[in-house]
From TrEMBL:
It comes from the Bacteria. Gene3D superfamilies: nmb1532 protein domain like (1.20.120.520). Residues 5-126 form the Hemerythrin-like domain. This is Hemerythrin domain-containing protein. It holds the Pfam family Hemerythrin. It comes from Lysobacter auxotrophicus. InterPro entries: Hemerythrin-like.
Amino acid sequence: MARDILKTLKAEHDELKQLFSELNETTDRGVKTRENLLQKIEAALMPHAKWEEKVFYPAFKERADRDGLKTHAEALAEHHAVENSVIPEVHAADPGTPEFAGRTKVFGEFITHHAKEEENTMFKMARELFSAEERAQLDEEYEEWKQSDAAMALIAGEKAKAGMKGAVKSMTQ
Ligand SMILES: [Fe+2]
Ligand SMILES: [Fe+2]
């Protein structure tokens, strides 16, 4: 089967949804499990979201019509809401509490909603805007990028930012 960036991104969405459903089933006493699952979620989400923002969204935007531009703006606004509000709230909660359970539930709902929108609108449009060869090429580039030092540095920076924003949130809540 030919490589296709849209299939890879969709598979990552599915993986994230699975991790969130596992996280939803944990109890307040399952602190280790919660920490573990949150770590897995962030390890899967951060490269995905950052590469979309840096490569895929701009490439899509360049070819998009008016509807596409709206979809692009919507997707980006959702990324920002997750990065600036949803994730910091999760980090501001103690994993052994109902607050953590509630906030990670919202986190999962945001991601599920966003993934569905991407798949049903943006990816659908992208299938028309990018040839099979281009989609295969993007898929290879994404795989290489994920293993690069630049990506690792970016992810480490994002993690530090999430932790800091969480610390600020916990002081103000
Ligand atoms: Fe996205
Ligand atoms: Fe995505």
